[in-house]
Amino acid sequence: MNEDTKDTVAEAVVAEAKPxxxxxxxxxxxxxxxxxxxxxxxxxxxxxxIAEYPQVIKNTLxxxxxxxxxxxxxxxxxxxxxxxxxxxxxxxxxxxxCDTCTIKARRERSKAKRAARKAAKV
Length: 122
Ligand SMILES: [Zn+2]
Hints:
This protein has three helices and five strands; from the N terminus they run αββαβββα. With 122 residues, the chain is of the alpha+beta class. The strands form two sheets. The protein has a three-stranded antiparallel beta sheet with strand order 3-4-5, with no helix packed on it. A two-stranded antiparallel sheet has the order 1-2. The N and C termini lie far apart (129 Å). The site of zinc ion has 8 residues, from α3.
């Protein structure tokens, strides 16, 4: 009679236990302390900006990382125009209209200039 010992060897291989994978514990990101919304360039708060530039819309002050500049949204200064526009706070002093109205105004200005030049030549 032959004694078969192969069976016991095979059993040992199957029994190899898989190590239990621990669920990846995501380290919670430390919450950034909320920075006060201040226009860095001139140290103005949003309220101060609005006081100086009434076209600024409240709660729109934000930081543009790529430009390292702060910006706000404004409402267009043209009567009846309800467009809004993003403006760097550093440009607020010169931007009062939305894109569309700015282009329109520019076109009208150059038209007036051309007319003035024409008139001067005659
Ligand atoms: Zn407009």
